[in-house]
Amino acid sequence: MPRLSRTALVEQKPEAVFNLVSDVESYPEFLPWCEYGQVEPIDNGIVHATVGISKNGFRKSFVTQNRLYRHERIEMTLVEGPFKYLHGYWDFTPLGVSGCKVSLLLEYQFVGGILGVMTAPVFNRFANQLVDAFSLRAQSLGD
């Protein structure tokens, strides 16, 4: 099963980066391949997040259930989308007074057939860019 693990050091407090990552509606502002983002509250600290991906005529969306551990961690589990399996988390570890280490871990498996063949390369490219995109966005908001 593919596993993606990325980290970055960001000159922002964990609270600021957590708020950025949990603000799914703002993703289209800085993720060029993100067509839309929606959040539906489910329970205390649990939301369903829908992300629409669009690139060169390819369009797909997926929904995750996100458990929010305020300013520390976001755990994601697949609800619906072009995956057989998707689970992961974001961690926000304080570094000094005003920095943090941002970690993203994703484990995923695509559905079989043509949908999986078409989706895999697009998702892999986007997933690899996520931590960098969020780090750059966090830095720009801090300026």
Characteristic terms for this protein:
single chain; 143 residues; alpha+beta; Alpha-D-Glucose-1,6-Bisphosphate, Chain A, domain 4; 7-stranded antiparallel sheet; 7 strands; 27% helix; 51% strand
Structure explained in plain terms:
- This protein is of the alpha+beta class.
- The protein contains two helices and seven strands.
- The chain has helices at residues 14-22, 113-142, and strands at 3-10, 34-43, 46-55, 58-69, 73-80, 83-95, 99-110.
- A seven-stranded antiparallel beta sheet has the order 1-7-6-5-4-3-2, covered by helices on one side.
- The longest helix is centred in the C-terminal third of the chain and has 30 residues, at 113-142.
Structural class: alpha+beta
Major sheet: 7 strands, antiparallel
Approximately how much beta-strand content do the residues carry?
over 45%
What is the overall silhouette? globular
In CATH terms, the superfamily is: START domain
CA-CA gap between termini: 39 Å
CATH fold topology: Alpha-D-Glucose-1,6-Bisphosphate, Chain A, domain 4
List how many beta strands DSSP finds: 7
Strand order of the largest sheet: 1-7-6-5-4-3-2
Number of helices: 2
CATH architecture: 2-Layer Sandwich
**Average pLDDT figure:** 89
Q: Total domains, how many?
A: 1
What is the highest CATH level, the class?
A: Alpha Beta
- Give Rg in angstroms: 15 Å
Uncertain spans, ≥5 residues at pLDDT below 50? none
The run of helices and strands is: EHEEEEEEH
> Which range best describes the helical content: under 10%, 10-25%, 25-40%, 40-55%, 55-70% or over 70%?
25-40%
